[in-house]
Amino acid sequence: MFRGKFTRILMVLVVLSLALSVVQCGPKPKEAAPAVLTMNLGSEPPTLDPALASDTTSVFCDKQLFLGLTALEKDTPNVIPELATEWSVSDDGLVWTFKMRDDVKWVNYNPESKETEEVGTVNAHDVVYGVKRTINPETASNYAYVLYIIKGGQAANTGEGSLDDVGVKAVDDYTVEFTLESPAGYFPAIAGMWVARPQPQAAIEEHGEQWFEPGNIVTNGPYMLESWEHEVSLVMVKNPKYYDAANVQIERIEAVTVVEDFTEMAMYENNELDVTGGDAGWGPPLEDMDRIKADPEMSKELKITPRLCTYFYGFVNTKPPFDNHLVRKAFSAAIDRQSIVDNVMKGGQIPAIHLACPGIFGAPPADEVGIKSDPEQAKAWLAEAGYPDGEGLGEIVLMHNVSEAHAKVAQAVAAMWEETLGVDVTIETQEWKVYLQTLNKNTPVEDVPHVYRMGWCADYPDENNWVHEVMNSSAGANRPRRGCVDPNCGEVQPTKFDELTVQGAVEQDPEKRKEIYREAERILIEEETAIVPIYHYTFVTMTKPWVTVRYNAATGGDPIKDWRIDVEAKSAATGQ
């Protein structure tokens, strides 16, 4: 009896053991697929260093990796908190104080082990370091001039003052204070720009110029850098230590750096890309716009929205024959902007005759300022300048960075100039990083083109960001070489335009500021004609149906942390 009972118990145990073994060795539950966004940056980012970024591609990446004191709303140009929780300004408008949150971590991501290490908490001292590093002339930031509004910023950046005297200090670990040169109600927007963001001092000092490469870089934003195969691809992954990580759905951003828009479109149609266009990357090729609009499915994926950017051509004002303002006026009046928008771009762009676009505070009212298309007037101005029917002008070099869209615009403009003015136009192209160096105001004048393509997108929604920080002969990049005493721009003599932009920056009456900026734009476009505005941008994008939420911020830096992907729908459509 005992033996039989024992045998039955043993058999039960064996059966249970086998069953457990089957359960343990059977197929594991399928893990949910990660939300992966595939996109195109459109070009190789020249840098990921916030102090050195000056192009939309670099800034787009930096805004995923680093946080600022403030940010701009996704759908409006209103300033909202990011690292800051609140801010205040003194009665005289000169001292701004920002209180910071204390739960934002610096992190270092190891691409090999896939581990994320906390390396400290972001604090006011990091903001001070970042601002002063951008201003430090040894950093050689092309965007340091944006911080000249901070007391002592310009003096320190030009070597005429000390970094110790720059008006930024940590009141305590989580309070940072800025003292300005003059009142500026728009300063909270500047405080959130990439050049004013906290920077990781220890990583920068340890790794030098390689500090922003994978494995070295220390960041604090919603994403971290996993890999960067230069000229090919860049991958960012979700930061698990990000203070709002629970609300970030997209776990990987897999970006290629394809410079041809037709290649990007082919990849999109082959489901290799989830999106095209936006703040980084190209929109659909111009040749495909009619096809896309006529297609019942693709037309639903096409979206055109306003963008606070202006596409323009700049004249090198010290390079003959464009050292003559009448020549510049003639070339401006010979461009039919409406034709370019309707027949070349086809993306709902707005023809532009002044620099700042609609939606920017202080931008001139439509059609009140600028040079409109007028072929007969163009011929008359050219003849008055001493070049009737283009005689004696010689070869004119028009340069743009590599892009099919830029090439199409250049070909159209060159044809207009050749037909109206009788000039011989040669079009040249350069890769973006090289192009920026070529257009530097200190490049020997014989090495720069006569005319170049450029665009400007709002850093913050105020005319100061356009006429002063872009076009003032002393404050900005000054690619047109305005006010330069010699061809190589070794010395600058400020003009009436320059004086007005300085006046507009400090004027406290909003209506008077508008009047000042209107006159500044008039002088820039109608009298000096330093540049030729061509059109105000739109976002022309394609988005797959499984990208259920996509924001293209009007002021740039598409916030991928706020986007959403239907992973199951993407898997079903792509077979992944």
Molecular structure report:
The protein is of the alpha+beta class and 576 residues long. The chain folds into two domains: 39-257 and 545-574, D-Maltodextrin-Binding Protein, domain 2 (3-Layer(aba) Sandwich); 305-538, Roll (Dipeptide-binding Protein, domain 3). 31% of the residues lie in helices and 21% in strands. It is built from 18 helices and 22 strands. Strands 14, 15, 16, 17, 18, 19 and 20 form a seven-stranded mixed beta sheet that branches. It has a four-stranded mixed beta sheet with strand order 1-13-12-11, with no helix packed on it. Helix 16 (496-506) runs antiparallel to helix 17. The protein is globular, with a radius of gyration of 27 Å.
Number of domains: 2
Please state the CA-atom Rg, rounded to the nearest Å: 27 Å
Molecular shape: globular
Major β-sheet annotation: 7 strands, mixed
Number of helices: 18
Instruction: Report the sheet-strand fraction.
Output: 15-25%
Number of strands: 22
> Mean pLDDT, rounded to whole units?
92
Q: Low-confidence parts lasting 5 or more residues at pLDDT below 50? A: 1-26
Q: Percentage of helical residues?
A: 25-40%
**CA-CA gap between termini:** 61 Å
CATH class of the largest domain: Alpha Beta
Structural class: alpha+beta
Give me the CATH architecture of the largest domain, please: 3-Layer(aba) Sandwich
Remind me, CATH topology of the largest domain?
D-Maltodextrin-Binding Protein, domain 2
Looking at CATH, the homologous superfamily of the largest domain is Periplasmic binding protein-like II
